[in-house]
Records
---
Amino acid sequence: MAMSLATPEKISIFQRKLYRKVAWENVRDGRRPKTFTEAVVRPHSLADGMVVNGPLVCCHTVKAARSLCPTSLPRYTAAQAILKNLVWRFCSMAKLFFGLNQSLDGYVDYLEFATGPALFRHFYEQVRDLTGSVYGRRMYEVMRIWDEDRPEWAPEQRDSAAAWRRQPKWVVSRSLKSVGPNATLVEGDIEAVIRGLKAQLVGEIQVAGPDIARSLTDLGLIDEYRLYFRPVVFGRGKPFFAGRRPPLRLVANDRIGEDAIRLTYVPA
């Protein structure tokens, strides 16, 4: 029973990049798929699936998925709905999210938080996989510490700096006259620019800094908020929500790294 997602001849360059980027996130080489969602990513033979520029492939027959999946599969109509939903998530538009370390009393300060190896790795991988980031002037100037390597940096810090430099950046400012490499200065209609980015790109775009996040929240443009609570108390500083907190709905909570709890919210 064919799902008819595509044939190898019909896969565009965009689709190849998209499927490789998405990878349906949890599939790792050598790990047996545990669910239908994973099984549709890696069929057991070329005849049962379509090749997507490398080891990642997408089945277009239920038979191929069933041969890999140790658990029972949903009916064909349900499987089709799963794939349709995944394609909608990743094809329709980019996701805009705002996430920062936060003290227990609600304050953020990028330079004040000590980050252990596991949490540092988490943020490095996040930056590495981003479609890009949106900055206000203050946070952009803070982050330019990564523009040039420093002799005292460890290898993981150099990797993080390289990932940051490769990442496209949009800097919203009326006072800056120029920005650094791989960055675009946004001086005009911020709403039009960000809506355009979301419509034209796929993947995730990070909103970096409470002030720019407040502006984009007021415009209804942020799709997800990620609060990384850390076991410290500052007593004062810049709050995570620089303006009025929007109505939110909790969708996930995870332990990240050595001492962080990440709460993920979407607009209610």
---
Amino acid sequence: MGGRGSSSPKATGTSVKQRVMTGGASGAQVQQRMHGTVMSTTDTSGERQGPAVVGASHTLDEVRAMSDTQFVKYVRGLENSVSDSELMSHGAGLDNGTVTNYYAPGPREADFQRFLYDTGANGRPNVVSSQHFQQMDGDTIYRTVTTSSSVPGDTATVRADRIINGERTATGRGIYGAGLYFADSKSDSKRYGSSVPGNSAIVRAKLNQNARSVTETSLSRMLNKESATVRSAFQDSSGYGFKSEARKSIYALWKGYNVIDINGRGYYTVLDRRALTVSDGIETW
């Protein structure tokens, strides 16, 4: 990503040997599929880091080792893997009170949340003190959150703390993939805040050594090269885009990426918090 947003030491994306699921693809096939890396759980730049896997029934390695047919069947069955009530209990869909409303246009958009839970890609970010964060190299990226208008007690501060310390990742909706949206400009990020004083909070982060980024354009090009089986589950009727933002993010993680670079526009969709080193200081206004 041209050094944008990487913390010190510079992100390199060290490859990790894949564990192959019985009956799935060969180790060579998994390595070929993996354009990125499995995220390390070793904390090399922060002060504390939470567990990498919470209640997972698969691992990303196992999912990547599936044949195309197995993988497509797995993705299409995600809606039955985690209930809406469980998603709600971990912060998904709190804005409007239901998963269906939050993940517009419908429940299918919640499948990325289910994919994270099922594969254990819910690891917490590296968390450092505000003072340490200020001394780190690399560009800072920002995520602004606002107080919920429908859920009592779900304040901007609570929501920001959920990103930093939450047991599970509660992703948001958008048009550039399901995930956590960040901007490399603080002023741009603050534009998504609330007009009500005290109802906005901002999280500061840097992409760390676990980050593996890919542009939206590159993802679409990769999809075009997939088998007809995979394209049938992910590609829209135009033959170029994705069926949904959830499917776009699932595909990115399947290919080994955990950050979608919005084609150099200064915005990023973070798919796995382990790609982040975040400051424990939350700014509110």
